């Protein structure tokens, strides 16, 4: 009997791993050397993610699309700088995990299609972040769900401060048909720092929306796209204390980003994770796409 789960390797511009669940007509594409990013996710043969292919083909640009990984910070640091033990270090927006090549670990096709990617600290990371670590992220698809199970391992001889998150770009050709159920009543504008109360919709006439829900009351958010008859649920474990919503006018995407801590947490300490030496921390996010 043929397994419904498979993993194939395609040589495109970058080596691309293709995970599939044939019964659900579900396919996930992952590019380890381009920041370990998931670039495409088909459910019932329909694309869930947005990808700016022009930016993706240029290795000098950050990827705008798919699911970029945020580590060891989410957001920006003032002047891209943080201080550790009195010394200043430079770290760019969202950290370095989304820019570096990841290596392939285990692959599995029993009960699901799963691929583990690994990022180890190296000279490049130590030049901007003075800690030794290993990240092991397992992408798994089954039916209409995608899970990303994460292990963060501190190989340093001191506690390792970090925050982490994801920056998924969801395809939305008609954003006027989106309705959001987010477990938070109040949001904060990340540019003006003004606060507002959420009603389930965002003002599509604005050039940019960049808001953060800092006090979550639940572990899942749901987006209904009536133009595509699609309900998308993003769930996450309790390590993720924030959801950031970002959108640009005229672009066919919206982003709903689970973060463990706000921007500048490496300096302020706000909600920062301090992982003890030799310790491991585990987290999970899950996306489920249902066509109505």
From TrEMBL:
UniProt-recorded Gene Ontology molecular function terms: carbohydrate binding; isomerase activity
SUPFAM superfamilies: Galactose mutarotase-like
Superkingdom of the organism of origin: Bacteria
An annotated GO BP: carbohydrate metabolic process
Protein name per UniProt: Aldose epimerase
Organism in which the protein naturally occurs: Tychonema bourrellyi FEM_GT703
């Amino acid at each position: 009997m043929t397994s419904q789960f498979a993993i194939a390797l395609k040589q495109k511009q970058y080596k691309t791993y293709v995970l599939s669940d044939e019964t659900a007509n579900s396919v996930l594409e992952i590019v380890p050397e381009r920041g370990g990013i998931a670039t495409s996710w088909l459910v019932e043969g329909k694309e869930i993610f947005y990808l700016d292919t022009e930016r993706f083909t240029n290795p000098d640009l950050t990827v705008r699309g798919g699911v970029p990984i945020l580590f060891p910070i989410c957001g920006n640091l003032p002047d891209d700088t943080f201080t550790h033990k009195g010394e200043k270090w430079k770290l760019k927006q969202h950290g370095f995990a989304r820019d570096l090549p990841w290596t392939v670990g285990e692959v599995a096709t029993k009960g699901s299609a799963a691929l583990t990617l690994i990022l180890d600290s190296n000279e490049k990371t130590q030049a901007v972040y003075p800690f030794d670590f290993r990240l092991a992220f397992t992408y798994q698809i089954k039916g209409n769900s995608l899970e990303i199970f994460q292990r963060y391992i501190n190989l340093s001889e001191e506690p390792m401060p970090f925050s982490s998150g994801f920056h998924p770009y969801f395809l939305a050709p008609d954003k006027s048909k989106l309705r959001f159920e987010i477990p938070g009543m109040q949001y904060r504008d990340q540019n003006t720092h003004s606060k507002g109360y959420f009603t389930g919709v965002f003002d599509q006439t604005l050039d940019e929306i960049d808001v953060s829900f800092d006090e979550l009351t639940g572990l899942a958010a749901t987006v209904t796209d009536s133009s595509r008859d699609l309900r998308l649920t993003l769930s996450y474990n309790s390590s993720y204390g924030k959801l950031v919503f970002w959108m640009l006018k005229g672009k066919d995407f919206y982003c709903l980003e689970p973060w463990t801590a706000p921007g500048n947490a490496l300096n302020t300490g706000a909600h920062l994770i301090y992982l003890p030496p030799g310790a491991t921390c585990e987290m999970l996010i899950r996306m489920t796409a249902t066509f109505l």
